[in-house]
Structure formats: structure tokens, C-alpha cells
Design goal:
Layout lengths: L29 E5 L17 E6 L9 E7 L7 E5 L3
Antiparallel strand pairs: 1-4, 2-3
Length: about 90
């Protein structure tokens, strides 16, 4: 709901997966990732921010593979909200 530390959807460990099921088929043009800035972090660092991530398009949530839409790197020294264009 906001950018305060602790009000987030955290993944346990260094690897996670997320599936978003939509009501209809879409053709995305970009993805955004947002993380709190270092200035709002109680520890002064944002080591919990995502680094390398990939986005796949699936026909359904049970599909094993998918179409790779892009591989990205979140810049921890950049803006808190970062946009990544679809690469395919």
C-alpha cells in the first residue's frame, strides 16, 4: 500500500517465483519493479532488492515453460521505480 519498510511482499531466500493470472490475454510492452530507496531503509542498504530477474509469458498457470519476454537487472543505485521494456 505504500513505500514504508515492511509493507511489502517479500520472498524468502534468494530465489522466488510469481505467477500473475489475468482475466484475458494481453501483450505487455513493459514491466515495472519498485523497491524502497536506500534513504528509507532502516539499515541504509537495500540488499533485499531484486537483482537479476526474468519474465515469461504463459498460456496458463500450470504451463512448465513459457515464452521468455526478457531478462533484466534492477539497479539498486537507480530510481526506486524502474521500468523494463519487453525484449522480444
Amino acid at each position: 500500500p505504500d513505500m514504508y519498510p515492511g509493507n511489502c511482499w517479500a520472498f524468502k531466500g534468494s530465489l522466488g517465483y510469481l505467477v500473475v493470472r489475468l482475466s484475458m490475454k494481453i501483450y505487455p510492452t513493459a514491466f515495472t519493479v519498485e523497491h524502497i530507496p536506500k534513504t528509507l531503509s532502516p539499515s541504509g542498504n537495500i540488499s533485499s532488492a531484486p537483482r537479476n530477474f526474468s519474465v515469461y509469458g504463459l498460456d496458463d498457470e500450470y504451463q512448465e515453460g513459457g515464452k521468455l519476454l526478457g531478462q533484466y537487472v534492477y539497479d539498486q543505485g537507480g530510481e526506486p521505480l524502474q521500468m523494463f521494456p519487453v525484449m522480444v
